[in-house]
């Protein structure tokens, strides 16, 4: 992913108001992020633990979505899998993140959710730059490029659902 400016990030959000986008907390150390290893920018809001954000290229444009994180803690005894990168984590390492749909549908309260690495570090897990605390990543026969392509395709499918202005 190419480095993004604050203005590009704030201008990309499709499921919140411009005022909300101006007020959201950006990730700390934006300039120092490992951009060359990121397939999307994802972060949890340090000031609001029930909020997360994701910015990615989709359909030739930059698309940002606000996400809600459930406040209910999941069991640490279960293993869960991220639906984007397919990394396995202990129970709290994967969270159901819900995005309000864009447009009228979202303003009416319709959301779409998916299970994602709770820290939104899918790109780093795929590349072995970050390890899950309790579960190791299973060996796959796909190349790293194929793993990345699969993750991007899964993310594209999720973003398409967010951008669809009607419940599925």
Give descriptors for this structure.
168 residues, alpha+beta, five-stranded antiparallel β-sheet, two-stranded antiparallel ribbon
Strand-helix topology:
Elements: H1 6-11, H2 18-23, E1 41-44, E2 51-58, E3 61-68, E4 79-81, E5 88-90, E6 94-100, H3 103-107, E7 111-117, H4 122-126, H5 144-163
Antiparallel strand pairs: 1-2, 2-3, 3-6, 4-5, 6-7
Describe it:
This protein has helices spanning 6-11, 18-23, 103-107, 122-126, 144-163, and strands at 41-44, 51-58, 61-68, 79-81, 88-90, 94-100, 111-117. The protein has one domain. With 168 residues, the protein is α+β, with helices and mostly antiparallel strands. The chain has five helices and seven strands; from the N terminus they run ααββββββαβαα. The chain is globular and about 45 Å long. β1 and β2 (51-58) form a beta hairpin. The strands form two sheets. Strands 1-2-3-6-7 form a five-stranded antiparallel β-sheet. Strands 4-5 form a two-stranded antiparallel ribbon.
